[in-house]
Specification:
This protein is an alpha/beta fold. It has one domain. It contains 4 helices and 5 strands. Strands 2-1-3-4-5 form a 5-stranded parallel sheet, sandwiched between helices. Strand 1, helix 1 and strand 2 form a beta-alpha-beta unit. 27% of the residues are buried. The mean pLDDT is 95.
Length: 109
Amino acid sequence: MRFLIDAQLPPALARWLSSAGHDAEHVADIGLAGARDDEIWAYALSAGAVIVSKDEDFALRKILHRNGPSIVWIRLPNSRRSELLTWFANALPKIVEAFERGESFIELI
């Protein structure tokens, strides 16, 4: 699975996903750190990537544009990087399973 990690999340999440066998990039790695949401959306759509973000705008955009890229909307409170990575490690199998079932929007609370 291919993931695009948005700017509010640490680049370490992309590195961790890569080490777990997924194709993952952080927006900062591809020159999109300061990009507008529509630019990130277009990149993810063309690359076939799932956007992983804490930004509610992507969730709202997905509701309006069903044909866009898949979204993982993380609604966890701010936490340390290590806590986020541990939490994501526990959630990843369910995330992958949901996308394999055909889901295109996952909200993680």
